[in-house]
Amino acid sequence: MLTGPTPGVKYELDDHELFGGALSIRAVTEDDETVLYIGLFRGGMMKVLLPAAE
Fold first, then answer.
1. In what order do the strands lie in the sheet with 33-40?
2. Would residue 6 count as lying in a domain?
3. Taking the model in full, what pTM does it have?
4. Cα–Cα distance between 33 and 50 in angstroms, integer?
5. From the CA atom positions of the chain, what is the Rg in Å?
6. Domain span at residue 53?
């Protein structure tokens, strides 16, 4: 079970063939937000915004 981007929201996926992974992760600060850049195992990139804590 994975925790979603909204606190308390969970996603279930019944797929045992799902394959993936992060090859590298870099965290930077942009406009008072933490931004994660995730380099994916088989190419591609994900950008995840983490708002500043209140």
1. 22-30, 33-40, 45-50
2. no
3. 0.56
4. 6
5. 14
6. 20-54
* Cα dist from 21 to 16, 29, 40, 47, 53, whole Å: 14, 23, 6, 14, 27
Structure token pair of residue 1: 């079970």
Count: domains in the chain = 1
Give me the average pLDDT of each 10-residue run along the chain (54 residues). Answer: 54 68 87 86 83 71
Tell me whether residue 3 is in a domain: no
Asked if residue 7 belongs to a domain, the reply is no
**Position 42 in a domain:** yes
The amino acid at residue 8 is G
